[in-house]
């Protein structure tokens, strides 16, 4: 039964190449880096780069998420015109478990990191729903980075 | 910004009435009691009563789950014939985040409690998929217990 | 970086022998069984057997705890005389992160299971403080069960 | 029993004033900003500013921690000379539950954010041990920011 401690980790993020974030989940050329997964608790931490005008599809956060905006302008929860926030440089974000987000639009080139607990439900561009978890995220990342390495 | 501690709780479970678990998620008359939700982390704790021969529909645990079997015989992960376990009285269960379960069959009247973190994805009897979270569980429970109270 | 899913588990608890819970943390012959640890999140799940008249030392729950009382009578949060509860058979307990408990007295032979997240701080009988975590709990359990196996 | 969703949040961090991090836990003028607490799960998220030559006292992380280094040079887990890492700009850190850190030295002015789950145990400069939790952190932050507001 004995179980070992989890492993500490360190990622020099600027030395990790960007990969394409799935087209199903956005328009406008969003890139991502998967920084960490915690399989036991279903944590996953992602750095996003979203060009000006890019749009993330509607989604639900099934667990809490914490994030940091490094640069740019992102319409958090629809933006200030509809009760949300315009997230900019040095903005800390907390999304509650169960948060439902409509399309998320970038008003500038935006870079932010997000630690998510549990899966996202995405509404794809064809209207169907799909779940993205630490596990499918990791599978995609492995596939993308191996392909690149090959 | 100040946030208060969460509230302690105590439920005398044998004084809580059973409610019908949704037909979409099972056949055979499964009952449930919702004991606790933790909205911040998407925890929810459920007591199930599953008559002999009842079947839970296929589902995915998107976060870890811990459970205790009080009585009965439940084919955990398909049962021992396919690499799973026959869970009986005084059985402790741990399901990992991402665990995919096919139909779960009861060989005897079975009572067990399950603490789940994050949502379940269910395959309904019509083949479609639906997510059950602490939040939809709570909404259903409120509706069922108020209806009963009325 | 690839990380595997956590392992599912099943423990037939009535086939696990009781071990002595540390004298520093109680008086009156409390026994325990360590059922599960989740190193990544610092979860640990313990079954306790506390004879009538036994007393758990004062302690702080640094994370939330959920429990189930199988039998007996335990003065939860000091008992009903001081605003707490007398926990009995079929009682479900939720303790919030940060809950501080004074001495916990058993009015009957009491068996309960407790899933704890994060460590406990105990006040030992000599007045000093010590932390018990999933890790020190696991170390003690390994030591006790190996000793028994030898 | 009904419980509401947790609240979303957004903090424009550059508009929050730095406060002094407790002298007991460091030398050299470390400052902090408390960005978020999640009482239910004992999460707390802190931005640190540590001048060159400052030293954080030895401590234990009782739950996992994730962090991001914005600038500087921090000897993570003792630094590369003893098997650790020199954390620099764009470094992502993951500390496992139970990680024990000796003195943490800053080789340059260093700014980093850390999301911690569960409490820290600090060894104070007088050799005694003390626990810092989301709750004591929040109490200190309230006291410091109210004092400033007065």
What would you note in describing this structure?
The structure is a homotetramer of 150-residue chains. With 150 residues, chain A is mostly beta strands. Chain A has one helix and 14 strands, in the order E-E-E-E-E-E-E-E-E-E-E-E-E-E-H. Chain A has one helix at 134-149; strands at 9-12, 19-20, 26-27, 31-38, 43-50, 55-56, 59-61, 65-76, 85-88, 91-95, 99-101, 104-117, 120-123, 129-132. In chain A, strands 2, 3, 4, 5, 6, 8, 9, 10 and 12 form a nine-stranded antiparallel β-sheet that branches. In chain A, strands 11-7-13-14 form a four-stranded antiparallel β-sheet. In chain A, 45% of the residues are buried. The mean pLDDT of chain A is 95. Chains in contact: A-B, A-C, A-D, B-C, B-D, C-D. Strand 1 of chain B pairs antiparallel with strand 11 of chain C.
Quick structural overview:
The first copy, chain A, has 150 residues and is mainly β. Helix content of chain A is 11%, strand content 50%. Chain A has one helix at 134-149, and strands spanning 9-12, 19-20, 26-27, 31-38, 43-50, 55-56, 59-61, 65-76, 85-88, 91-95, 99-101, 104-117, 120-123, 129-132.
């Amino acid at each position: 039964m004995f179980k070992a401690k989890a492993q500490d980790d360190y990622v020099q993020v600027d030395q990790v190449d960007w990969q394409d974030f799935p087209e199903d989940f956005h328009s406008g050329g969003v890139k991502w880096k998967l920084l960490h997964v915690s399989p036991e608790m279903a944590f996953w931490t992602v750095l996003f780069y979203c060009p000006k005008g890019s749009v993330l599809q509607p989604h639900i956060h099934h667990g809490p998420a914490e994030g940091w905006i490094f640069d740019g302008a992102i319409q958090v929860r629809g933006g200030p015109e509809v009760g949300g926030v315009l997230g900019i440089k040095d903005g800390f974000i907390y999304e509650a478990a169960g948060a439902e987000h409509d399309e998320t639009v970038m008003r500038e080139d935006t870079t932010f990191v997000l630690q998510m607990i549990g899966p996202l439900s995405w509404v794809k561009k064809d209207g169907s729903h799909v779940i993205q978890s630490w596990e499918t995220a990791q599978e995609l990342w492995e596939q993308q980075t191996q392909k690149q390495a090959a």
